[in-house]
Design goal:
Blueprint (H helix, E strand, L loop, with lengths): L1 E9 L3 H10 L5 E4 L16 E2 L8 H11 L6 H21 L15 E2 L9 E2 L5 H14 L4 E4 L2 E8 L14 E8 L5 E11 L20 H8 L4 E2 L4 E8 L12 H4 L3 E3 L19 H15 L4 E4 L5 H7 L1 H9 L9 E10 L2 E3 L11 E3 L4 E2 L11 H24 L22 H17 L3 E2 L1 H24 L4 H22 L8 E2 L7 H4 L1 E5 L6 E4 L2
Parallel strand pairs: 1-2, 1-9, 2-6, 9-16, 15-17, 18-19
Antiparallel strand pairs: 3-5, 4-5, 7-8, 8-9, 10-15, 10-20, 11-14, 12-13, 13-14, 20-21
Helix pairs in contact: 1-4, 1-10, 2-3, 3-10, 5-13, 11-12, 11-13, 12-13
The structure holds flavin-adenine dinucleotide.
Length: 544
Amino acid sequence: MEFQSDFLIIGSGIAGLSFALKAATLGTVTMVTKKSQADTATNLAQGGIAAVLAAGDSFELHIEDTLRSGAGICRSEIVRLVVENGPERIRELIELGVAFKHGEQGKDKLDLAREGGHSARRIAHAFDLTGREIERCLLLSAAKNPRISIRENHCAIDLLLASKAGLGPAGEQDRCLGAYVLDNHTGEIHTFQAKTTVLCTGGCGKVYLYSTNPDIATGDGVAMAYRAGAKVANLEFVQFHPTCLYDPKAKNFLISEAVRGEGGRLIDRHGRPFMTKYDPAGDLATRDIVARAIDSELKASGDDSVFLDITHKSADFVRRRFPNIYQTCLAYGIDITRAPIPVVPAAHYMCGGVLTDDRGRTSIPGLYALGETACTGLHGGNRLASNSLLEAVVFAHLAFCQCQADWPGIGASPHPRVPAWSPGQAARIEECVLISHNWDQIRRLMWNYVGIVRSEKRLSLVHERLLPIISEVRQHYQDYLLTPDLIELRNIATLAELIVTSARLRRESRGLHYIVDYPAANDREWKKYIVLRQRHPHEFLPVN
Ligand SMILES: Cc1cc2nc3c(=O)[nH]c(=O)nc-3n(C[C@H](O)[C@H](O)[C@H](O)COP(=O)(O)OP(=O)(O)OC[C@H]3O[C@@H](n4cnc5c(N)ncnc54)[C@H](O)[C@@H]3O)c2cc1C
């Protein structure tokens, strides 16, 4: 079937919903989302959203903190744009009904938290369920808007390009006209046409064996954009959270840094503490240092996990201070008042993505990218905590302003005729193990070879090992009728290839990219982004 609307938004997290609510003032909006509408990273966000809201804080301080965290390669004009837009966007969220926690002082004062890397209290939050509150409120507003329709269990496969529809040449002049989308329940593939298409598909944590991300995070937006010829950048910068519960049944449960803050100690399988070997601050070292230390211990020992031990504190204190962690671990058979918690670092956030300008426009006309899928230049080589929700709401607004300015021309243009999806000779897959095995291979390879600490040797080995898997996946894609698992497998294979390629090109250590062969940053040669584009040589984009 064919569906037409003014806007097609792929993804129903904070980026997609924030843009949808504004775009609906211009025209009709269709959102497709590949599971249920709240299956998003947004819904899991705990800490909050950063903005300059306190009397003693300033834009200059927030800008400085973001630049410092970004390891010298943030785009400073984007940092300023996002930071200065922050307070207004938070006010909009409050007007929509987001119940941020208020302080003791009264109703008009938010209770602002402070997080690592921030020099002031500036995190608006709803206890440790901030994302859930934002998602709830945005979904409620979207449901009330007659111009917005949300289609759950619809998985976008590929972007629809004018050149592929025989409506113009490929290359710089090509235009995005929407996307082909699988209805997960019926197996039908529909054409969703739109005058403007917006990728809001979140991150790619599931490329790695261990991740804090929800299952939807398979880098689909980046993979689709790359296949369509868009520029993608900075994909070597993957942020890892140091302590995620290690249990085969617990998919993505974070053990908060506050456990170490309250005296929790990292120990190996024999009960030996190890953090002071790596940093004088010991267990209280920063996230990237702790993640690297755990990685090094696991590589040396071959163990599956290290352990976080808080048993020396009274059971009563632990239960009161960490009720959620206590209950969740107990559900997996671990009483944290009596036994150490098995933990591993886990892939948490993708700092790179589809390269955009200061309005969220990608290098393909008609296509925007927002939220974690985009590489706007805000995060540089390392994201500052709580800046990602902020980036999503600010860029949703900036993209809307651009669409509003373009609307007199774009809104009036008719939808062209486009071809329906053709399955070719594809047949139903009888052996799903073909898909699950490749999934597992890629995620394990990425974890072991392209994780927190990299080396030239491992990067070149993983490249060799990925190539046959990638060609096998391409063959599956030709041979079999599409399923959500096959679509995601194809996308994680693409992301794995892009991350490895970018990591091999950057011959220095900077921010989240640490490579033992080049342990220091090299500002003279490497203050630039690595930009990849299918069928084009890689480019370097200098940053100021
Ligand atoms: C555990 C956890 C805690 C976090 N805590 C914080 C925090 O405190 N503060 C902060 O700023 N950031 C935090 N982050 C990061 C932040 O939550 C995310 O970066 C942000 O929510 C991303 O929003 P988004 O709208 O870009 O994507 P998401 O919220 O991930 O939404 C992506 C959407 O795209 C859809 N989608 C994906 N592929 C397809 C496809 N092919 N077809 C159709 N739909 C598709 C998904 O189904 C989903 O609806 C945290 C992340 C995690 C995982």
